[in-house]
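The methods section describes the discrete structure representation at length, but only in general terms. The central task, working out the structure tokens from the amino acid sequence alone, is never made concrete. Nothing conveys this as quickly as seeing an actual entry. For illustration, here is how one protein appears when written out as sequence plus structure tokens:
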Amino acid sequence: MEYPTDQLSRYTFEEHDVRGELVQLTSSYQTLIRGHDYPAPVQELLGQMMAAVSLLTATLKFNGHIAVQLQGDGPLNFIAVNGNHNQELRGIARLKSELGATDLRSMIGKGQLVITLTPDTGERYQGVVSADADSISTMLENYFEQSEQLHTRVWLHADGEHAAGMLLQRLPATGKDLSGFEHLATLTDTITAKEIYTLPAEELLHRLYHEEKVHLYPSQGVSFVCGCSRERTLEALASVSPEEIQEILAQEGEIVMTCDYCLTEYRFAPSDFN
């Protein structure tokens, strides 16, 4: 029997200056892709991005939001997942043409990965790395090396039903000896998709690091939260001129708006604009 997921687990090692994270997603991931008719490779990429944003959000030292966008000149020209410190995630992908080859480079083309951090209080920060890589994991590792100067390894998996990821990161100011970090990364390399999808966090970590002393912290729930509402959708229509709104109402009798993220339909009658 599969273990219920949609949770993020943090852990540390008693004998190494390394922190770790594990995220396992099922229902939140399925909700994110449901109804969008994404091709299977795009579903998998969205799952990896969702797991990545959860892991990144857990590294934040502030309350706020994070947005990760992958954009390029390939058939899949835009894919983005947003999250916050409460582990509430949403995401979307846009294709400008049918997919040919389904490797990441072919789908995205020439492009970049943009990570935007927006604290509830304080200044916004944006980091950009090239999308010239074979995986999102490699892009994120390059981002941490470039912007944070922190040795970081990331593992991401998704299959259209489950999504999951792991992160290992050396703690800042811990000297130049990388042997402990590299040893733990080598152990983590042995994880299989089936194990990370189905095993409880404690069992998974024991299987990977059974010779290490690992401290596992209480898990945090992860959920899909779109954030749309009838009121916000009506506010968005404020950017449309009154003349254009009246023209649409005269022709259609109502205005129908569909949320890009959750596909909820909102219908507005002439009385809504009085």
Notes: Residues 40-59 form the longest helix (20 residues). DSSP finds nine helices and 14 strands in the chain. The longest strand covers residues 16-25.
